[in-house]
User: Fold these one by one.
Assistant:
Number 1:
Amino acid sequence: MKRKPSQPNMKLIKVKKGKNIIKGSLDWPLVIVVCILLVFGLLMLYSASSYNAQLKFGTPAFYVKNQLKNTIIGLIAMFVVAFIPQNVVKKTTFIIYGFAILAMGLLLSPLGEEYNGATRWLNLKVTSIQPSEIVKIAVILAMAYLIGKFAQYLYNVKMFYFVFAFCGVGAGLTVLLSDDLGTGIIILGIGFVMLLVSCERIRWLLITYAGIAVAGVSYMLLRSTKRVRIEAWLHIDQYADDKGYQITQALYAIGSGGFMGKGLGKSTQKLGFIPESENDMIFSIISEELGILGGIVLIALFALLIWRMKKIYDNSTDIYSRAIVAGVASHIAIQTFINIGVVSNLLPNTGVPLPFISFGGSAVMFLLMEIGLVLAVSRMREQTTDEKRRTYYQQDKERGTESII
Amino acid sequence: MTQNQTKKEKKQKNNRKMMAKRFNAAIIVFLILFAVLIGRLIWIVVLNGEKYSKAAQAQSETATTTLSAKRGDIIDRNHVQLVTSPTVYTTMPDPKVILSKEDKFLEPTVALINKHFEIPTEELRGKIADNPNSSYIVLKKGLTFSEIEEFLNEKEADRNVRGVWMENSFHRNYTYNTLASSVLGFTQDGVGIYGIESQYDDELTGNDGMEYTYLDSENNLQTVRKDPEDGYTVRLTMDYNIQAIVEKWIAASWQETEAKNIGCIIQNPNTGEILAMADSGNFDPNNPRDLTYCYTQEQIDAMSDQEVTDALSQIWRNFCVTQSFEPGSTFKPFTVAIGIEENRIKPTDTFDCYGCETFFPDTPWEKDIWCHNRDGCGTLDVKGAIANSCNISLAQISQRIGSEFFCKYQQKFGFGQYTDIDLPNEMSCQGLLYNVNNMTVLDLSTNSFGQNFNATMIQMSTAFCSLINGGNLYRPYIVKDIFNSKNELVRSNDRVLVSQTISQSTSNFVKECLRAVITDGTGGAAAVEGYKIAGKTGTAQKYDKEGDYYVISFEGFAPYDNPEVVCYVAIDEPITGEASRFSSELFSNIMTEVLSYMNIAPDDVE
């Protein structure tokens, strides 16, 4: 059975002998899913944040206006990144990584802004950014570059640790400098998936991560300030008034929303009970207003996004591109899982925002740039057999010869 | 070579297959994790949905704490506090805290509350035992700080007294009870009703704040607090002492004349500021529904509900601004001023009065107008016409002026228009005035001595100020400036010149006429020893009512050369009839005290 060629106008470009890379158009399904998530996010952000915005800034649309501005900048950045040639990105990889580390370092300087007891923002006068968001994209780029270059040598312990170091340093700095365990775990998770798909032998990978897990858990249990969080997670009912307050309130929201929800805008938990409901806890407000049905639809959208990335991954041509896609997909998947896991008390409390939905300018901007990287990959892919056949046929016709393949 | 290459290619192909497989596995793990999340959500709703719903509902009923803003004070021109909002406290024991160590905390706490707030220990114990999970029970409201001060000190000293909160709120307090009640108005549920409270409600009302406490993701206790913004302080042009003098004499006169109402306005003719404004329909804004200041208990008991409502709205209204009447003879100086200003009469002109003049003779609408002296006043010059308050002479003057100029000047003096004083419910009386098109000669004549059209007291007083200050009509105002809670000036009112009514020379002549009223005319009773008082008496018959009802009034000023105080008194329906003596005496009594209080040097020293 003949397959219909999916891309009608294709320009044939020769990259290397024997390999035909075609330049297709963007992967529009991915763009559409992202846009749906963004619109849904802005809508729910307005609903969840208007009360707090009114209280703190006197105007209910404060957060959503800010987010809309950053989303538009992010979308422009996404399309720009999608059309930057890969080799340009490769050349600037370590500049970006260096910049990310520098930005983390600046948190120690007076530019670092403390909020709720942790220094996570850089105040650049005009805007404030979260360096850990840059670290995530920098780690994906750096590791993809190294994996693309040294994939076949990764069986070597030294080489493995050399590549892993880029992820380890990023995660370590995030945890140490900005006291942001959640983002640290996400960066380690991204590194794990990227190395998993590219190392032939994964013995060292498993040993390393097992070690990190043991060290992490024992640290959590030994440090009393961190252990309380575990305790609150396990016995949420007993900590409802202090350490487990936020999560208890989120559970109240999910529970009272039921299957069908109270209706858009009708949340009562956002009225001061869930503090900063526009942020990490936004999923609980979505569940309260649209029911867990709304929550399931949202999770399904994320699943669709990842599934679409898998398609792009399968169609991509080289190890570098694949590593990029694996990194971005795992970033979104892990972050979504941790966020909703925390809100539903499946995981202990570590604050990470819900991708595309939670309030946060730098988060949404850098996330859209990552989507841009994936779109850039989607533009390059190997010809299918059918397409090859068609181009040869075309060439023969032009030459006036007819050959049967 | 080729073999090598195929081997490499084969290896790469295998490698790519491996990569695809591994990523597949990762994606499947992710999707499984997502499925776990969905399972978890369903778990929450199915197993605990009802419990969490109830908990959410229960807590949403106890909303975030509102921090109420303090309503602004009202002070007089010398910063005497007329209206304040002192803090009052509510005692609220917290059973949750008290019962956390029942054996240690309960007894001392209950004993101390009992000692200071006289609440039976049994009742208190019962309340605490009934609400073990509550964070507060309201025990006693409206306590002042002095009432709770000792309790707080003793609570501080005894470490076992725990869990008693004091919530503060504000109480509106009118320091001098009935003083200036018609001007101040009152508040109901924090909203100003009548008077300054209503007119400046936006400025006096602050913005409420809000507070809630929560634990953030790092488990730090966070408090979000929006501070309340207290209301602005409103400073009146009114002087507490002058107001008190005025109210004292109004009360005395009210006893004597048993009038329906008595109003008085004291104004500064050079700015339009109101120094005092009062009427006899007093009430206590602390308890605005109490009628006992105006009626005896028997009268109140006899009233129906509707009558009570009517009586209340009557006493709440500000007579000087919201009610009108025919001004009567106090309007005569205006007619003279118009004639002089427009050169229709000369001060030396004379007029003959035979006591009666007939309009439209031999027609069905024939009408006589009478002078109050029915035998006739004889031949009078202009000054004499004012001094003797001769209606016939004034009618003759008005016919020389003609209705066109008369109406024009009436408008110019502000009759039939809002004076724009910053008090609510002002009346303009526009519909109660004639205009050029519908004014007959008869109407013109009756208008000339202040009958047959209506004016409010504030209109009369404001126009009169312009008559004697050289013709500057200033907008009357009662709020001098407004301060915020940090005592910074927010806004201030200044004198506003509305129009130039007459010239300085006309004004001087009118003043001469008004002086003659006191020295050789009808207003002898209004004299104040030591001062060259000048003014005009007024007696207006109320034609809209059956029987002999009058409004008697007096409008005058002092000192003669540089007027600083204008005082206008009006007595509505006195049982003493048309004798203008009572209003003149009331004027005299008030001015005697006011002039000496204001330290105005006597100008009539021989």
Number 2:
Amino acid sequence: MRNIPISALIGLVFTGVYFLMAIFAPLIAPYGLAEIVGDVWEPSSSVHLLGTDSIGRDLLTRMIYGGRTTIFIATAATMLSFTTGAVLGFLAATVGGWVDQALSRFVDLMMAIPSLIFALVVLSVMPVTIPVLILVMGLLDSTRVFRLARAVAVDITVMDYVEAAQLRGEGRIWIIFREILPNALSPLVAEMGLRFIFMVLFVSTLSFLGLGVQPPAADWGGIVKENKDGIVYGIAAALWPAFAIATLAISVNLVADWVLNRTTSLKGGRGG
Amino acid sequence: MADTLLQINGLKIEATVFPPGEPPQDITIVDGVSLSLEKGRVLGLIGESGAGKSTIGLSAMAYGRGGVRITGGEVLVNGRDILPLGTRGLRALRGAEVTYVAQSAAAAFNPAKKLLEQVIEATLVHGRASKREAEERAIALFAKLGLPEPETFGNRYPHQVSGGQLQRAMTALALCPQPDLVIFDEPTTALDVTTQIDVLAAIKEAIRDTGVAALYITHDLAVVAQVSDDIMVLQSGRTVEYGSTDQIINHPQEEYTRALVSVRSIEHKEKLPTDAPVLRVKNITARYSGTQFDVLKGISVDLSPGQTLAVVGESGSGKSTLARVITGLLPPRDGTIEFAGRTLASDQKNRPREDLRELQMIYQMADVAMNPRQTVGTIIGRPLEFYFGLRGAEKRRRIIELLDEIEMGEAFIDRYPAELSGGQKQRVCIARALAAKPKLIICDEVTSALDPLVADGILKLLLNLQKVEDVAYLFITHDLATVRAIADSIAVMYRGEVVRYGPKSEVLAPPFDDYTDLLLSSVPEMQLGWLEKVIATRKMESAGN
């Protein structure tokens, strides 16, 4: 743990800052979330560090609360997609036969439909609340995790130590959680970093299209939507959330890369 | 000494290792090794795994595998130091003046290209012959190496020929550019004994007829004694002893060499079978699903409590399949298995826990038989917890007892498999099997992947444990020296059938059937001139031919 490369360190610091801001949003934010404190699109000043938005709310406050919503939804959806995807993937790999066929073909079917369009269709008939958003995003994304988990687990189930556990008479739960999971963890953790970022982009896209987080609650995609008209007049308000999404994506990926490097090879990894 | 072809002086080779969780370290793999090789002679490099023998062999091509660096000494080929040569100079050297025969021919050939194309490729790239000449040369080599239909053999793809033939094709590949020096890196280690002997004879003849010099790398002293003129014994990257083959085999000077020469000297007194066998295999016939071919045909054998039944045969004879049938991983098509007086369910999933506990298994590759993310304590402790419900201090006490029994001790309890040597890993697997207090342990080639001295230790341990725990072994192996060392009775298998079965003294005594004779005579012996003698007196060709 002592030899963290500089790129991973940068990633860790930025990711940490974003998460801390999300957790302590009410303490950090200078104003209230929906409080109108100034004119429309004021430039940045000592009172409003990032200026104000399309109806005169403090942009920094909106950004902090927006980050909280975005990161919370993305985290919860990632957790959901990993739990469902990994458990079903491991199950398909260990049981095999028609269970594997049924699950795999169903996942193929789901993946044949572009997930954004699928989500838009579902959300247009369901009430758009945060739990529904998380559920839809998490389940749609779990198809990708299922594929990865199944592929990794299929390689592990043919190892002699899994056969030894089977011969000992171990149940399926033990084999999945004690024999397969610890050995499948490193590719899954690395994938989790990437999936989290896709979730951030997904929820931002949905909000931008108006089917994600509903006003007056803020989220980064929503802030872009509210302020996009300002770009025409040279107002940078819509670019701040874009900037935040980009930096979060890069820093989480730096960390994920490092985890991948460290854990794929027991001989110390590539490159150093 | 005018014709010295390869001269290595004070070779030093280092590598950087990356132990998990620690900063990288430089280690010395080879230290101060010197040797010289004249035209037309063969030098055998022998040592256990990790002795640096392959690394020295590759240094004759100025090549370091995976981060290995040559940091000192000089390597002279034809009087020219090759270490300072640049990429271009080395490219001209490799595959032309010096060629290489790898251990696993199956992994070394491109499966998508015909053999002839690959055999002549290096010769053409280096412009050492025209295409027509190279093809003629390859065909002549095929004939010399005893390959079937040399004219058309090259038109086959790698998967269409047997392992022994592929190894010979690779020898042809190495000899085709008419090099000065060929490096043979364990060319027969992956082959069956009966196939090994043909390949060995072919290689020896080809070396003699073409007059090349060769470095022959192996861990098997009996094999190297057949082909080489001189032998260098290596241990941990240093020369232990260097002399003529005759001197090393017949008058070894060093302690370590003597140990290598006298390995497999275990004395085991045969026990007579009793009336109530612990395992009775009756008329088993089995095939894998989706195939139309019986891998086992009417197998019947008995095993008495506390004794060892050795199942011997080449790869493909069905001996591992027999283990899968007994453990219930492959339900048989016909026949029954009686274990401790009761009939076993044919499918492992339907067997009660007590049956599973009393029948344990040890695998060939200890590395993959243990979960790399579990500690030794967890690995050995799980059967204790699972079968006997032991927990906490009681479980720990029993784990330590077992660790002592396998001569390792308490210090290993928190180690991970990656931190153990090959022999220690196999010992942990033995402890895991013993933890269940079984009546029968199936040992599937448990010593095949180990160095001779380490394998010897494992066999002695197994014999001692048998005395203490009164456990029976079904010992699957292709190695007759192992069988002689530990078996009470023997079943010889050939193409899915038991061709000879009985107490050890009877099976290993003449008159032999043809196959047992072939198998017994193919085990390399530690004496000069053995190869020629055997080839001259054999009755039957190996199945791999």
